[in-house]
Structures are given as structure tokens and as C-alpha cells.
């Protein structure tokens, strides 16, 4: 596994790896200071105010509020920890396009961040999962599964690397929100249309339906002749009225087209061993 990232209610949860040979308190302080220095450097490059409003999200746990990217964008973030386990919770948002709604939307974004901080739990070992929570790298958020909106949606990304070929494989689960398109087309149709619209010199290596971990999805393997690159993709898209709170799942790869047969074999091997574990109710 190479990396994990997730978003719940529009709040990102990122696992922070601290150096094992440095005392925890010193390592966390150094990480946070470096993080703020990088924020200030970015603000300076973007010609934005360098001011960062600092505080605490929980007792002893630092929090920062500042501009981001443009004078319409904001970021609120905090570092939460429990012993060596450390995560960065972060919410980005842009001012509402309607000037009359800016203040209300700003307050709503801050409130959603505070709710995520309050809902986050570092899980003790041996505790059975609760199916009504969102499980993310580093812990869980005690939110019931509900349909989100454009600003507060949920997704989880987990990255892997195939050691022999160096193939980088991303698995993304995106949960439904109120912009969910009931008339959307499948993966194959969208990719075919994109290739036509962009007039890409693309060769289809393989395409069609494929079941992965019991989910009936679509697979497509493409090669771009001009760029000498390949893209592998598999997607499962639940119907809007499917039973339960099912995510859209996408597994994808982009790499060079050298040693292609070996990379296709690695892709097939990965899909053959994927399992999606159902939650079990806590006892």
C-alpha cells in the first residue's frame, strides 16, 4: 500500500506518518510547524494574506484557519492524535457564488468541519465495526450514512504498487450525493466519447463487462499510441435506487506501455484478489 486519502462530509482525513526515532511530542510539533511554513510559502506565492488564525480543535491539538489558492478560497485544518496515531483533518471551501449567501455558507462550512472533528474517533484494537460509521485511514467518523451534497460528499482512495512491475493502482470509492445522475452512462461509453471528442489516437486493448469481488462492472484497457502510455480501468456504478448505501468503485492505472504483457498480467492478478469486506454490526 502506498497511500490513503478520504473525505467525509467534505472533510479530508490524511494519515500523518511521524519519524519513529523522534519523541512523539517533538515529532508532532515539528510536523505542524513545517506544515504551517509550507502554507505560508504557498500563500506568498499566490499573493494572498499570510495571516493564519491559530487555535485548538481539541485541548492541546493545533488548528489553523487561512486563505487558500485564491481570495475566494478558505481552509480549516487540525492535527488530531492518540499516542503515535496522528491524522490531519482538513476542509477546503470557496465562497458562495451568490453574495447574499456568502456568510451563511461560510458558517455552514465551519460548522461541518467542527462536526467532523467531534465525530472522529481513533479506534481501539479488537472493536467490531459499526456499520453506521464511516471508516477511514486512521480511525472512523461517527456519522450516519446519508446522501450528501456537492460540498459535503464522501469518498475513499487507497493506492497500491505492484512490486515487480512498479504498477501504481488506485482504488476509489465515491458515495452518492444529491447531484447523482440517474441518466449517467457507463465507463466504456464515457471513455469512447472522450476519445472521439479529443481526437485521441487510442487503441482499445480490451473492453467489456467484468465482475470483481462480486460486483458486476465494466473494464477497459487503452493504449495511447502517440504518448506511448496505457490506461487500465474498471468501474462499478450502482443504480440510483439500488438497495443500501452503495458507493461507485473505480480501480485505475496509468503507466508507460513498455513491458505491456507483464503489466496486464499484474492488473489481472490484482483484480482477481480484490475483496470488499461488508461491515459487521458491533456487539
Give the structural class: alpha+beta
Shape designation: globular
Strand order of the largest sheet: 3-4-5-6-2-1-10-11-15-14-13-12
Percent in helix: 10-25%
Strand content: 35-45%
Distance between the termini: 30 Å
Using the CA coordinates, give the radius of gyration: 21 Å
Tally the helices: 4
Structure report:
It is a single chain. This protein is of the alpha+beta class and 283 residues long. It has two domains: 135 residues, no CATH class; 117 residues, Protein Transport Mog1p, Chain A (3-Layer(aba) Sandwich). The protein is built from four helices and 15 strands. The protein has a twelve-stranded antiparallel β-sheet, with helices on both faces. The protein has a three-stranded antiparallel β-sheet with strand order 7-9-8. Strand 1 and strand 2 form a beta hairpin. It is globular, with a radius of gyration of 21 Å. The protein starts with a strand and ends in a 10-residue tail after the last helix. The C terminus is likely disordered.
